[in-house]
Write a structure and sequence with these properties.
The protein has helices at 2-22, 24-30, 100-111, 145-159, 205-225, 245-250, 259-273, 294-308, 329-336, 360-368, and strands spanning 41-47, 93-99, 125-135, 178-187, 190-198, 228-236, 240-243, 279-287, 314-320, 349-354. The chain is an alpha/beta fold. Strand 5 (190-198), helix 5 and strand 6 form a beta-alpha-beta unit.
């Protein structure tokens, strides 16, 4: 019976997985991932999946046995005007909890993304307890009942006190056994994601929503590839500052834009906290492409070339369309880095443009297709 239930559950999960893959672009572009961000699961609303259930009714009367005259309508009369009932069949919506790991795998299959190869020496380790043996002393919470009773049984058989017709086993202190543990050090590939975003007046609510959606999927994919991930957030207009996640997605200023302030803040953050031999570093900058001056554009390129690309696995610049931004910075980077500062693994500087929500899927493919 259990195997049958497990088979049914697996078939249901396959149906859910297929529907998510079919509507993946819709989920990415319309934000139909509800709540539970920051946890291990998200709720996915799926249409047209009926969960089997029993429906009980009153069988005391049959057809045509109730009150009323022949030809009279059953139930309450319908409304009129705005209160009139609809004639279309409703759509069944089922919310299914899907783990972020499974969601990342679906994304990778759909976009044909290669698994990321971590860089660096990975000297960072995690320490955990591994229960590896049995010992005669220990705390009561680690008592091994089966081994304790086995020792008591062996003692009673050896002493001739065991009666198979009345098999009463009473452990004494010498029979008690406890689980023992050792500390295991496990190498861990850690990663840090630094998100940078322009919060000047030209970046409105629509642009911030595009950034929020794309950052969610970036975070989901990188956490699937690394055991330990830290996220840091930098906002900038003419000045830059590190903020928390909530502030990052809600703050809006009305000043100008100096992109180099964000890159300089990022440089200082990496130099202070993240040695590239120990950390896999991912940098993502979101902007509408508007910058204060040509001199600041040149300064940005210098900081990227001399201080950021050498410390990171990937630098992704994502330009979101805005009616108020010039959109010029993308062209500046293309001219300054025509080869994307390519190394033996491919381009390190990845450029992407998102004009609307439908472009998020292709932008993710562009950022991670190299498997960096």
């Amino acid at each position: 019976m259990i195997n049958k239930i497990e088979q049914d559950h697996q078939r249901f999960r396959q149906i859910v997985r297929g529907k998510i893959r079919r509507d993946l672009k819709k989920f990415l572009s319309r934000g139909e991932i509800m709540g539970k961000e920051g946890g291990r699961y998200v709720s996915i609303p799926l249409h047209d999946i009926d969960i089997p259930n029993f429906r009980y009714g009153d069988n005391s009367t049959g057809v045509g046995m109730g009150e009323g005259e022949e030809g009279q309508g059953a139930g309450k009369p319908g409304g009129a005007g705005e209160n009139a009932g609809g004639e279309q069949e409703g759509r069944h919506v089922t919310e299914v909890d899907v783990s972020l790991e499974e969601l990342a795998d679906i994304l990778a299959e759909e976009l044909q993304l290669p698994r990321i190869k971590p860089r660096g020496e990975h000297r960072i380790t995690t320490v955990r307890d591994k229960y590896s043996g049995i010992r005669p002393i220990g705390p009561a919470s680690l008592r091994h009942f089966k081994r304790s009773y086995k020792e008591a049984l062996k003692r009673q058989v050896a002493m001739g006190d065991y009666d198979p017709d009345d098999p009463v086993i009473i452990p004494i202190k010498e029979d008690l056994r406890y689980r023992s543990w050792t500390q295991v050090k496990k190498p861990q590939s850690n990663a840090v994601i630094v998100y940078m975003m322009d919060v000047s007046g030209s970046m409105g609510a629509e642009q911030k929503e595009l950034v929020r959606l794309q950052a969610f999927w970036i975070d989901t994919w990188l956490r699937r590839n690394y055991e330990g991930v830290e996220s840091r957030y930098i906002v900038h207009d003419v000045r830059a500052a590190e903020v928390d996640r909530q502030t990052f997605f809600t703050l809006r200023e009305d000043g100008g834009t100096r992109i180099s302030s964000a890159y300089q803040c990022c440089r200082e953050l990496l130099e202070a906290s993240y040695d590239p031999s120990d950390w896999n570093v991912y940098l993502f900058h979101f902007s509408d492409g508007d910058n204060s001056s040509e001199s600041d554009n040149r300064l940005c390129c210098t900081i990227i070339d001399e201080h950021l690309l050498g410390r990171c696995n990937l630098f992704g610049y994502v330009q979101v369309a805005s009616a108020y931004g010039s959109g010029n910075f993308l062209s500046v980077l293309r001219e300054a880095f025509p080869d994307g500062r390519r190394d033996e693994e491919g381009e390190k500087l990845i450029l992407s443009k998102v004009n609307g929500r439908d472009d998020i899927l292709e932008s993710l493919r562009t950022l991670f297709k190299a498997g960096r």
